[in-house]
Each structure stands twice: as C-alpha cells, then as structure tokens.
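Database export, one record per block. Field names are fixed; values are copied verbatim from the stored entry.
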Amino acid sequence: MTKPYRIDNLQYANWSEKIFRQMRMGGVDAVHVTIAYHENFRETVLNMEQWNRWFEQFPKLIFQGFTGDDVRLARKTGRTAIFFGYQNPSPIEDDIGLVEIHHRLGARFMQLSYNNQSLLATGCYEAEDPGITRMGREVIAEMNRVGLVVDMSHSADRSTIEAMELSSRPIAITHANPHNWHPALRNKSDDILKALAQSGGMMGFSVYPHHLQGKSDCTLESFCQMIADTADLMGIDHIGIGTDLCQDQPDSIVEWMRTGRWTKQIDYGEGSASDAGFPPMPSWFNDNRDFDNIEHGLRAVGLTDEDVGKVMGENWLRFYDENFGAAS
C-alpha cells in the first residue's frame, strides 16, 4: 500500500537542522510555515531571506514549495516542501498591490486578522465583530485572483462567515478545533464548520494544548475521536492536520505573538497569567516524528485507510492543486 501524503498545514517552530531532520524522520512531505505574525513588508522579506539561507544550507532536507506538484516532488526526492503563510495581513500593510507581490514571493496563505481588528477583518478577541471591511472585500477579491488562500483561523465568527460568502474560491481555517469539543475562544462553532464545508473549504486540526480538550493532558483517543466526529459533521474531504506546532520556541515568542507592537501590556490571550509561555505538548505529539501516532489513532477510532490518508495529507494536496494558482 502506498503511504499517504503527510501535510502539516501550520507550524511555527524555532527552525533548525534538527527540526528539518525530524520532518524527514516523520515522513512529512510538506509544511505550511508561518513567516509573519506582526511583521511589515520589509520585515517579512527578511524572514524570507532567512528561509533562503536554510534552503541553501539543507537542500537534501527542504525546499520552497509553490504548487501541489512540489509536494509530489518532495515525496519523490525524500524532502519536505515548505510553503509560506502569514497569520496577519500586516505584510501587505495598507497596499493591495502587495498581495500579488507576496504571492510571487511564495506566500500561499494569509489570515485576514490575528486576534485583533485589522484593516481587513475582525479577530476573535474583539468584543464586537462588524465583519469584513471595505478594504477586506477588495483584498479578498485580489487574493482570489492571484491564488493566495484566505485563512480565518484567528478571526471572529461574522467576519469568517462573510469571508466565505465574499470569496469566490474556498477559504481555509488552517489551525483550530471544534468549539463544541473544547470551548477555546479560537475554536470554531458547528455553524462555522458546516458553512466551511459547504463552501468547499478546509479545516486543519490543531494539537496546540490551549485548543485541546484537557489541554496538555488531552488523550490521543479524544483528539482522534474529535476528528472522526468532525468528519461526520463536515464530510471527510474537508479536514486535515494543522498542528500549530511551536517546537523549541522560547516563551518570549508567545509574548510577541500575542502582543506585537499594538500594546504595552502583556496579553495572555486564551489563558491567564498562570498560562504565560508555551504549555507542554500532549505526550503523543512532541514533534514531527509523532505523526505515526495520529495516523494509528485515527485507525483506532474507526477511520478506513482511505479516510486516514485524506486527513493526513491527501485533502490538503487536492486543496493546494486547486487554489495556489491564478484564477482561471
């Protein structure tokens, strides 16, 4: 039996040769990596420069991906394709022309907001959600045109629904879980998930402990049963993995993620002061070598080999094929 593709559609690790080698040990064919949280255009380009150095230093382990065919090339050559994405629209600043520039540089996913209100949409931590802004409507249309996927992982509900309605191409929620399984502010309601599936979109399940039932103590069985239940809700063709793995990051990075430059205060996000820093990962998923555990866990809760393959990467690969190029 051909081993299914493995695609992790969201990581933000403290990248190193060790992690690149672990990707290979875990048989990970592709990873969507966050290269911007609050960075402006120039700062994002500096992050791309750093990735170019890694591509130059470790060509037998990683290379930059642009299309679904690069995932197939990664499998054929025993490497991991790296796809760029942004968790905030800050890299386009206030200039819609930068959407196409970023796509040409390799960006394939961009969130319309990261927790707060942006120029485009409302984040999930805001008290009120007025929906997609005037600029947001224009940027969604431009993202659709060039093949930059709309990501609403950190966005509020009205903005998320409106993004689906406004987008002529399917959107993604790259890293979250169902709210009915664990009521984290960032997790998504059944109504959002059903609308996402009906619009042809994709949901990536997160193993970040704040998004898990039981947090760091979440069991593999609970996580995999949640995936099986969501398959019943959304359909098996609309779900995949987006671990939100933040391996080897110092706790100061959490402060950067939550605080950026918009506040002088410490924003504890989904937790309290006692939750500052990165929480311990669940015992069954510490790094890229642990994808076998998820695969075995999905089979244990009754998914067929075909359906396991879809969740582990086949669905994301189809989504890449259909959405990373210019609109026809």
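Remark 1: DSSP finds eleven helices and nine strands in the chain.
Remark 2: The chain has one domain: 7-323.
End of record.
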